[in-house]
Amino acid sequence: MKRLSLDRVERSLHPVGRVFALPLISHRERQTLKAQIAASLEAAFSQYGFAEASVSQLKTACNVSLRTLYKHYPSKELMIVAALTHRHQRYLTFLADSSINYGKEAILAVFERLNHWMAEFAPHGCMSLQALAAFPDNLEIKAAVSQHKNDVRLLLAQRAQRPNLATALLLLHEGVSNVWPILGYASIESAKLSIQQMMEKNEHA
């Protein structure tokens, strides 16, 4: 995706007298800018944490004015939701990126992908649960985290072709996400062993 010049966008949003410095940007450009801000917010919260990050730090990380940041996301909580939503979409695409589509080998491949994600993007654990821990009473954040976990649950069940194991697979996924910073790949190996045992038992039930 071609990145917009944020300087150009900034100047187009602010009038000089009664004349705009540049023509107003299109709806498509606004949506592109909004997506770019969400991606920058994800990176910023990953670096600074949710409770610790100040709006000033977020503004700088997004390379926009405070006015533009608030125009798209009017509160810090909504900035968090935007970051989580962007990360959620990236995560589902990342997990599903496998040449094996369905069955036991497919779900084992998903957990290998989970290991790569943890190593590269989440070495300190699940960002969604960290956001919920920082803002436990915020309904928008709680809804975003709930949607994320439910969609992961559905993806795991679809890949395994075992709807009856959806919750069990999610629990293994969540266990790995929480202990990976301590146990590393050992948590993946344990989860994969549990998956094989569950699926073999299910096949012979």
Automatic annotation (TrEMBL):
Against PANTHER family, the record matches this protein to: HTH-TYPE TRANSCRIPTIONAL REGULATOR YJDC, TRANSCRIPTIONAL REGULATORY PROTEIN
Q: In which residue ranges does the UniProt entry place its DNA-binding region annotation?
A: 54-73
Q: Which terms are listed as keywords in the entry?
A: DNA-binding, Transcription, Transcription regulation
Database matches in PROSITE patterns: HTH_TETR_2 (PS50977)
GO MF annotation terms: DNA binding
The residue stretches assigned to a coiled coil in this entry are none
Q: Name one Pfam family in it.
A: TetR_N
Q: Where are the transmembrane segments?
A: none
Organism field: Paraglaciecola mesophila
Q: What is the designated name of this protein?
A: HTH tetR-type domain-containing protein
Annotated HTH tetR-type domain residues: 31-91
Task: Spell out the InterPro entries in the cross-references.
Answer: Homeodomain-like_sf, HTH_TetR
